[in-house]
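User: Hey, quick favor. My workstation is busy. Could you predict this chain's structure for me?
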Amino acid sequence: MPSQHHPTGSSDDQLSIIDELTALPFPQQEGDRPGTNGGLSGPGYHLAVLRRSRDFWDDRSEEIVEAAEKELEADRDVLAAALTGRWGTPATVDLWPYLGFDDPDPDRTAPEPLGYLCNVAGSMQVWRLPSCDRWLALAVGQADPELPFELIAAVGEASSLPQ
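Assistant: No problem, here it is.
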């Protein structure tokens, strides 16, 4: 699970984190990004949790879980509107195919950050960045029913995402 930036309710703060991710060079090896209040990066990608809901260890009632997910989806939609103003309408990418259920080679895995994202979310909104050979995605996901929902920003090399 990627480390998280300190979650914030401010879309301006979240957009600043996104701007940082799109500009940062990719490291040669995987690890936390020092000096950025958390986040995970590796060859060809960056991941950051922009916001996290409460966890559901004590109460997994449908109303509580659904309200938390809807709140993060609303945050994603606000960010998506701002990013659409910059880069146009995003593509919606289904992440289920990256799980590899149909791949006969069990050792073949999706490149990061798709490998992480397909295990926590069903889809993501993707913008291809016009000024560089990268894409940016927003997704709302949950790694396990007891864990929080996360609003995740991911940046990857254009070659990691099929056209």
